Each structure stands twice: as structure tokens, then as C-alpha cells.
Amino acid sequence: MRRVEPHPVWIGHAGELRTPRLHAEHGIVALVDLAVDEAPFVPPREMVIHRIPLLDGAGNEAWILEHALRTVSGLVRSGTPTLVACSAGMSRSPSVVAASIALATGQEPQEVLARIAADESTDVSGLLWEKICAVVMAMRSFRPAHGQ
């Protein structure tokens, strides 16, 4: 499990998602489970969990990627200590965290991902990353009409 400084967000794998002792040690109160290929985790009652099952590669619809990015970027903005995990913690979770931090802070997704990859080993799916970046661009270009 690795923290993405200076934000209270950690990237992890399925085993760390299922280890409440680790959550308590780091003050984590929200979990985001991105692993479509893992059984759902039932956390302790006081934990908030978001299960957003993503494929590692092509095949994710834009709406589910947008939901993941809105969820994680909202947690980043609010300063909520959050663990984002996928099966191995190498592709889906770093991708979603990087894009979400970019949305929350106005940075470019590629710059954030490069910083994450410089600190720890990653193996980001190019097809997944391309789709996430396209969703980020669409989210940034959308401007709701006045009053909405």
C-alpha cells in the first residue's frame, strides 16, 4: 500500500483492501474497490466502501469510468483518507487515482501518473489509460447550463 503525497489517498491491492488493521493504522475511512475479478469485500460497519468494478484494459463504458473518477476525485477534494484498490494495485488503481487527483487539482493526468510511477512500480494498461484520459477530457469540457 502506498500513499500518493500530499493527498490522503493510498493505492493498494485486493489483499490490502481486506485488511482492516492497515486501514486503522493509516486512518483510512473510505475504500474504493475497482477489482471486477475479485469477490466483493464486506468492510467493518464504520467503513465507507465504493465498489466500482472495472476491467483492466478495454471494455469499460465511459459512464462507469466517470463514476469512478467523480467518486475518487470527490474523496481527494474533501481530504477523506481513502484506499483505492484493484487486484494487484498496478493498473486500475494507479490510473483512477492519477486521473482523479488531476481532476481535483487541475493538473494533467499524465503528469500525476508519471509521479506515481516514479515512486512505485506500475503496469498501467494502455487501453484503460487512453479511455480514462478521454473521460477526463470530456468531464473537463462539460459546462452545465446556468441554473443546473
List the helices and strands and how they pair.
Elements: E1 2-3, E2 9-13, H1 14-17, H2 20-26, E3 30-35, E4 48-54, H3 62-78, E5 82-86, H4 92-105, H5 109-119, H6 126-141
Helix pairs in contact: 3-4, 3-6, 4-5, 4-6
Name a few traits of the molecule.
148 residues; alpha/beta; Protein-Tyrosine Phosphatase, Chain A; five-stranded mixed beta sheet; 47% helix; 17% strand
How does this structure look, described?
The protein has one domain (2-141): Protein tyrosine phosphatase superfamily (Protein-Tyrosine Phosphatase, Chain A). 47% of the residues lie in helices and 17% in strands. The chain is built from six helices and five strands. The chain has helices spanning 14-17, 20-26, 62-78, 92-105, 109-119, 126-141, and strands at residues 2-3, 9-13, 30-35, 48-54, 82-86. The longest helix is centred in the middle third of the chain and has 17 residues, at 62-78. 38% of the residues are buried. The model has no long low-confidence stretch (mean pLDDT 93).
